[in-house]
Amino acid sequence: MNKDFPFDHFLQDKKGSSAGPGQTRNNNDLSHFFPLNQEEPQIKNDEFDILIKEVLTHLQKNISTDKYNTFFNKKLEIINIDANKVLFKVNTIFIKSIMESNFKLLIQDALQATLGSPYSAEFQVVTEESNTTPASNENQLVGRDKSFKDASFKIDLNPTHDDLISRVESQYIDHMNPDHTGILIDPNKTFDNFIVGPSNHLAFATAIAVSDAPGKRGKYPCLYIYSSSGLGKTHLLHSVANGIKVENPELVICLITARDFMKEMINSIRDKRLPEFQKKYSETIDILMIDDIHELKNKQGTQNEFFHIFNALHNKGKQLIFTSDKAPKEIDGIEDRIKTRLQWGLVIDIQRPDLETRIAILKRKAQELDLYLPDDVLNLIASSFKSSIRELEGSLIKLSAFAELMNVEIDTIMVKDLLKLEDLHEKTVTLESIARATSQFYKIPLADLKSKSRSKEIANARHVAMYLSKKSIDATLKDIAHFYGGRDHSSVIHAVKKVEVKVKSDMNLSRDIIQIENSL
């Protein structure tokens, strides 16, 4: 707390002196703050400034930076305090609604932490006109502080353009920063609405197999899925859980984050209920799913409990599923004995989605949002967001909210402005750029790729380049054949068809093509 906070002023008794030893003081008595001999409380702006700074400091420690900057920074002021209530000034009706629905309890906690006793928080929309007073009134107020009754308030029930933009941003922030604590099975995350592509079809197929036959009855009693953030790991976990609930409703499912698992264990130790914690996980659970298992790094006590729980469930043939942002052997701060066990089952990674998969994801999400987007907009978004499905979907949520609130149609100019894509330098994909990207990936000289050489290594790389030339820019067979050494167009047809067939069953080839596409 700020060392300059006026403790003596807040702790004064009714006579103006601080409560001494043996004296009792009512924490809710603010007569020292609002003198009893006046009909209306006198506002001390400097003291309110100190108090709001303390409240905001407390809030800043307990919410994300994005939410703090959007809803609190320079948007919240105190305009009155009575015995058990603090009245806050907010600038717009939208901010008032957000405060009352999402942050009221958090603000009341901050007030209690700052003032030492509980206060309710209420919010009043005050426009700039509220702070202006006619000249005649100003003369009458000289020599005393402005009171709460002296202030006039204008409630603006019509949202401004800034209100609407804030509302758009809030929906985007909520999507990009989901609340991961207290995880529950989401009935909306199913296999049916999971978009499958070359980057994730193995993980998808395995997840379905586990859902149909969990534990020792199936092929994969232990499954480990890893990828960068936002590529669908958590969606697959919920899909498996929903599938098991339908096919095997008698099984007990536990879907939890590693962080919540750790908190639960710590609380059980604090409350002297560790045996109950151990019994719950070792004896009552049939399906254990832990999201972001890497969060257990450097947590030796939790790792030890997890080790014994893993052994107990694995020995009983229960189903174990874990997700992470790294392969087991790459997680620092995890004991080797645990890394070994995490690799006992099937370890699968999810790659970044290719362009077609990203477009398919956008189309599905747009359908869910009842949002129409022309093909040029879909291609622009899919080409701009390559690394995260969550970010891809977040862009649509922002566009959908903007289109609905502003009552406008979405076009490429709006997309570039709203999603801040104007500074992105779009690359023009050509036969030459595809050939260079392929040659660099396979470490084959570009001249060899265009040559008449028929060595297996060079021919395979050339086939991939021809396939991408047809797929990515829809180049004509004649142009492709001419570019690669003046070949006959039938050679191009053969190469394209060969890769199209092989890519459906060859995971390594699928990944090669995705990586080359992402480099274009």
Structure write-up:
This protein is α/β, with parallel strands linked by helices and 520 residues long. 51% of the residues lie in helices and 8% in strands. It contains 22 helices and eight strands. It has a five-stranded parallel beta sheet, sandwiched between helices. It has a three-stranded mixed beta sheet with strand order 1-2-3. The longest helix has 23 residues, at 93-115.
Provide the fold topology.
Blueprint: H1 7-10, H2 45-60, H3 65-71, E1 76-81, E2 85-90, H4 93-115, E3 120-125, H5 135-140, H6 161-176, H7 201-212, E4 222-226, H8 233-247, E5 253-257, H9 258-270, H10 274-284, E6 287-291, H11 300-315, E7 319-324, H12 336-342, E8 346-349, H13 355-368, H14 375-384, H15 389-406, H16 412-418, H17 431-442, H18 446-450, H19 456-473, H20 477-483, H21 489-502, H22 507-519
Parallel strand pairs: 2-3, 4-7, 4-8, 5-6, 6-7
Antiparallel strand pairs: 1-2
Short description:
By secondary structure, this protein is α/β, with parallel strands linked by helices. It is 51% helix and 8% strand. The strands form two sheets. The chain has a five-stranded parallel β-sheet, with helices on both faces.
